[in-house]
Write a structure and sequence with these properties.
Elements: E1 8-13, H1 17-32, E2 36-37, E3 46-51, H2 56-72, E4 76-80, H3 87-92, E5 98-99, H4 105-115, E6 139-143, E7 145-146, H5 157-161, E8 165-166, H6 169-181, E9 186-190, E10 205-208, E11 211-214, H7 217-224, E12 230-234, H8 243-250, E13 257-259, H9 267-273, H10 282-292, E14 297-304, H11 311-324, E15 328-333, H12 351-374, E16 380-388, E17 392-397, E18 408-411, E19 421-429, E20 434-440
Parallel strand pairs: 1-2, 1-3, 3-4, 4-5, 6-9, 9-12, 12-13, 13-14, 14-15, 18-20
Antiparallel strand pairs: 7-8, 10-11, 16-17, 16-19, 17-18, 19-20
Helix pairs in contact: 11-12
Bound molecules: iron/sulfur cluster.
Iron/sulfur cluster binds next to helix 5.
Length: about 450
């Protein structure tokens, strides 16, 4: 008797790391049920497209990914942020099999079951104990909550994903421990607002290793720091309680790195954006953090050309950047997003002014970044290896998050392995990257 072959699914994952975590969860469930992943749309039984709907440009990218899947396969299930507003997708591609919003894992699985039922006897052992990761094996994203309680005027994520829902600390720690046991060396802690973790649970404790761990930013970071992996905190806001976590950084328990999406510095713009924790004490707070932990690296993103941003607001932002010495910066030109309340704000900034400001901010930041990196020349840094080439390996120091920050390029007398952590002597710096050689294993 011939054995039925496992149904094959081609998966496209678009959008931010948070969407990637959703994709990983869906794939993990599908693998558990005996589905296999296909490399190409052509020949797969189905295609799932996890879309991003954050900006209009991301929506376009999502629509074209759906179009490609329709053309090459024809059986397409759409999920993710853009699925929360299905009209545009339905209009462009009326024949997609199903459209669901973000985190609707069950609905995606139902749609898959309807279109291509699983084999009768799924081999549960197909699934590795840590789940399936789309990120390389040596680092993984750890999502600690969904949704957001803030209402920034330019953002539709709370509309798409709802209010904050935190995972109990023990559940997060169990997942983290499994990842580390499976070889993950670096955990990226993510959520829409990491520092708000647990507010919705009233910080309720859960039992982990026979002790109670509260669902609190500090408590979770402390426990994660005991697992023996690099722990990187992303999407944190400068609330006063973040000060406490700096102590864990100086003790080497979590990486001396904070990704804080400030978005702006000028008080009027921050007010119009309705940003959380936007008090004028931020500069003083950064200064105090750096005094306590001189190795601290700060990464941030900014929006230029927000409605009502005046020339003096922008000048304020540039001066603020100089003073705060933010190490790593991503900058976006403001773009209206369908459904965002900021669309109704007066005084839009013309496109050419946005571009000018964008160029000015990036130029200013390049100088800051170069200055900060130069201070590392001559030091020794631990570097995690991401890619190995014939003569030079590419890695990251504790100051570099994967995919968004700079890199460390290393020569070595012996071949290096991906995921290995080595000690490097830094010999040279440019505007964004470091260069050096391996000084210890
Ligand atoms: S903090 Fe603001 S920008 Fe971030 S997800 Fe929440 S509402 Fe959106």
């Amino acid at each position: 008797m011939t054995q039925a072959t496992a149904p094959k699914i081609s998966f496209v994952s678009l959008g931010c790391p948070k969407a990637l975590v959703d994709s990983e969860r869906i794939i993990t469930r599908l693998r558990a049920e005996g589905y296999e992943l296909a490399r190409k749309h052509d020949g797969a039984d189905l295609v799932i497209v996890n879309t991003c709907g954050f900006l209009d440009s991301a929506k376009q990218e999502s629509l074209s990914a759906i179009g490609q899947a329709m053309a090459e396969n024809g059986k397409v299930i759409v999920t993710g942020c853009m699925g929360a507003e299905p009209e545009q997708i339905e209009q462009a591609y009326p024949d997609v099999l199903s459209i669901t919003g973000p985190q609707q894992y069950e609905s995606v699985l139902d749609a898959v079951h309807r279109a291509k039922p699983p084999l009768h006897d799924p081999h549960l052992d197909l699934i590795p104990p840590q789940g399936v990761k789309l990120t390389p094996r040596h680092y993984a994203y750890l999502k600690i909550s969904e949704g957001c309680n803030n209402r920034c005027t330019f953002c539709i994520i709370p509309k798409l994903r709802g209010d904050l829902v935190s995972r109990p600390a023990a559940e997060v720690l169990r997942e983290a421990e499994k990842l580390v046991a499976a070889g993950v060396k670096e955990l990226m802690v993510i959520s829409q607002d990491t520092s708000a973790y647990g507010v919705d649970l009233k910080y309720a404790a859960s039992v982990w290793k026979e002790r109670e761990v509260r669902a609190k930013f500090l408590d979770l970071a402390r426990e994660l720091g005991e697992l023996g992996a690099w722990v990187r905190l992303q999407y944190v806001y400068p609330y006063p309680h973040v000060d406490e976590v700096i102590g864990l950084m100086t003790k080497g328990k979590v990486l001396p790195y904070l990704d804080i999406p400030f978005q702006h510095a000028a008080p009027e713009v921050l007010k119009a954006m309705r940003r959380p924790a936007a008090q004028d004490r931020t500069l003083a707070r950064i200064k105090a953090w750096r005094e306590q932990c001189p190795d601290l690296t700060l990464r941030s993103t900014f929006i230029v050309g927000f409605p009502g941003e005046t020339a003096s607001d922008f000048a304020y932002l540039l001066d603020w950047l100089d003073e705060a010495e933010i190490d790593r910066v991503g900058c976006f030109k403001y773009e209206p997003v369908a459904g965002a309340t900021s669309n109704a704000l007066a005084d839009p900034v013309p496109g050419e002014v946005k571009l000018e400001r964008w160029n000015a901010l990036m130029a200013r930041q390049q100088k800051i970044s170069a200055r900060r990196l130069k201070r590392k020349v001559g030091t020794r840094q631990q570097v995690i290896i991401d890619e190995v080439g014939p003569t030079v390996a590419k890695g990251r120091s504790k100051a570099d998050a994967p995919e968004i920050d700079g890199a460390v390029y290393l020569s070595s007398r012996r071949p290096l392995k991906v995921g290995e952590i080595v000690t490097a002597k830094i010999e040279r710096a440019d505007a964004y990257d470091l260069h050096g050689s391996v000084a210890g294993f």
